[in-house]
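Running this now, will post back.
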Amino acid sequence: MKIYVKELKCYQSLPEEVRKKARISGETCFLIPEELAEGIKDQMERYIRFRGETLSLDSMRGELWRLHALTTFLMDRHRELSSLCDMPLDALNRSLRVWMVKNGYQLSGIHHRLNADTVETKTSPLILYLEKLYAFAEEKEDIPEMEKDIWDLSKLGFPVRNNPVHRRDTLKFTSISQDGIRKESKKAVATTIRYLAIHTLDQQLRAMKRLSAFLARYYPGIVSTGQLNRDIIEDYLTHISTEVSDKKSFRSELTSLKSLMDTIALVTDAPQVRQLFLSSDATDRGKISGFKAYSDEEVKMWNEAILTLPKQIARALIIHQLLGNRIGETLTLKKDCICKRGGHMKVKVFQIKTQTTVYKPAEEKVIALIEKAAKETALTYGEREYIFVNSRNPDLPMTYATVQYHLMKMIRQLDLRNDNGELYGVGTHAFRHTMGRKLTQMHYDDKTIAQLLGHSGLESVHKYRKFGSKELSDETRKMRDHQDGIIERITKEWG
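Update: finished.
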């Protein structure tokens, strides 16, 4: 069976001059072998035509080799299947990985990030193609969404807490290789998805993914959380502390894993699972974990550099600093956010983390920046709900990925380095910490600082004070060492 690229909507909808530049041969096609079962051929044909309606021509051209490789795999290993869904996705995925290794395909690739010299591992496009095709086939077979290995959040039938700045369209359970643990995780997430943020659930599944990979390697007989014991968990804790190098701290990941385990214990009626992790497992003793703030010189350097960015992104980052927001709160500011309360001008800020609205003092320069940003959005995209919008879909707010990309690019181009001479990473939250630390140094009381930053309690303010005290201690130590050096030279001169 041949499906020619020129038949697809992604080609047909292009202007004539663009088609000529595309240089698509009349023979360029997706080839589905006749030897495959009718059910699989039908799934593949429908999927290709669906993708041809939703993707660009360049993207479809990139999928030609993936389909060819996938059909070759199925011909070699699974001619007995009448439908892709006859086999669990994790089993089919494992079979594909084995076939890829034997036939010289890479299971993952290296992607160089723009910030510093870091790299990240990317899953092979062929594996991702199988997952998407499988999810499409499942949908057409009318399998309940929460029984699938990939959940389409728009099809759950109820609203979820999805951060519009860090939006996720799916939840994936495919990386949990143990069938029992995967089913238990689905059951737990199904219980909490109505009130926990999708970002939180995604963190829990990422944490379970790492544990699953460890178990598959060192304890292949484990298929359910009910089979785990404290000795295995302590072995896992030792493993991530001594053999894993891609993270400096596992505090938040272990906290996420413990939360998911606690839910699994409740939904599977296995109270012993709650005893696997101790509270002390997820602590970084003696550290103010992840607490970073900028010096005055660093802030000055940042803001000089920020002015080189596109106007709307520069405005967003300056407003972000002036209000002491979380970045998601800045990017979701609405055009009607300036208001008058109690005789004073305020900025209405919706806090995604706590799902609450706070009102922050609005100085004239903040109001002026917000009004300029809103005016530019209206001129470019028409009247919109948000001040900073997504260029692809102006009805949605600008994504954090957009801000991150431009900051990464700026850091590399301008070679921005901190006071220690190290190349910066992207740390928008450090501006919030900087404001909190500065407010403690100005001797504001805890309640005022909490209100200015939008904290519901005073616990975080104590962290700002502790951080400020640590920095002051470091500065004092430098001065004391300098004085000791002077005294030492004087005493040597005296003999």
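The chain has 19 helices and nine strands. More later if anyone needs it.
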